[in-house]
């Protein structure tokens, strides 16, 4: 019912605002519908009233809904037919017409009268036979930019929540390692999963450097979506003061990543593409030895 309502609303908007109205998308839910469109100006209260009146009249006329597959080239020739901008349609494509049969449209594709009907390319589900919809009421209107802003805010909230879960998991691993070996002053933490981004590493290092500033910690994880190994190292102040201590972060990055950057006691690096496995293996195997050499004050071999 609501899907058919989007077609009626599209027709009514075109009647009120003209042919420059372009559909950009829609949402069909059991209790409501949303119709996204572009136009050079905002809807006025008078425009909204007219759209509702035209929609209501279309429904009250009890027009029949016709659905049929038509060869795409032929379907595009139908006068007044509507399609979503940028959408790719199959061949043949499904034509939904309210008030005039699809066969009649195809028999005379250039008839200007077809602009007086709702005719669209659509693969969705619609009411059968006569319209079962009873009314159309516009409850809310918002600029697309505002709605996109709201969606972006929701996505950021989800990303922050996901980041917190991953960072908390990393910190739990650190706390567990410290409890198991409280005398150690350096740890290597392999993060679980395949979606460990550089952001997770960065936040985990910030937390560890704040909570355990006397523990040098190296994090390594797989960033599957980005196709790379992500890793980072926090070097405690005590270790930085050792001869060669400053090199531990660089050694970690040279062991398993092409790119690295040093800031204070923090070192970050990434290894991309085909070198993932090499980066992972070397990072997990070489870094513990690098850390041991650092603590003992020995030189730091990179091989």
TrEMBL record:
<dbReference type="GO" id="GO:0004813">
    <property type="term" value="F:alanine-tRNA ligase activity"/>
</dbReference>
<keyword id="KW-0648">Protein biosynthesis</keyword>
<dbReference type="GO" id="GO:0005739">
    <property type="term" value="C:mitochondrion"/>
</dbReference>
<dbReference type="InterPro" id="IPR050058">
    <property type="entry name" value="Ala-tRNA_ligase"/>
</dbReference>
<dbReference type="GO" id="GO:0000049">
    <property type="term" value="F:tRNA binding"/>
</dbReference>
<keyword id="KW-0030">Aminoacyl-tRNA synthetase</keyword>
<keyword id="KW-0820">tRNA-binding</keyword>
<keyword id="KW-0694">RNA-binding</keyword>
<keyword id="KW-0547">Nucleotide-binding</keyword>
<feature type="region of interest" description="Disordered">
    <location>
        <begin position="264"/>
        <end position="283"/>
    </location>
</feature>
<dbReference type="InterPro" id="IPR018163">
    <property type="entry name" value="Thr/Ala-tRNA-synth_IIc_edit"/>
</dbReference>
<feature type="domain" description="Alanyl-transfer RNA synthetases family profile">
    <location>
        <begin position="1"/>
        <end position="151"/>
    </location>
</feature>
<dbReference type="GO" id="GO:0002161">
    <property type="term" value="F:aminoacyl-tRNA deacylase activity"/>
</dbReference>
<dbReference type="GO" id="GO:0005524">
    <property type="term" value="F:ATP binding"/>
</dbReference>
<comment type="similarity">
    <text>Belongs to the class-II aminoacyl-tRNA synthetase family.</text>
</comment>
<dbReference type="GO" id="GO:0006419">
    <property type="term" value="P:alanyl-tRNA aminoacylation"/>
</dbReference>
<dbReference type="InterPro" id="IPR018165">
    <property type="entry name" value="Ala-tRNA-synth_IIc_core"/>
</dbReference>
<protein>
    <recommendedName>
        <fullName>alanine--tRNA ligase</fullName>
        <ecNumber>6.1.1.7</ecNumber>
    </recommendedName>
</protein>
<keyword id="KW-0436">Ligase</keyword>
<keyword id="KW-0067">ATP-binding</keyword>
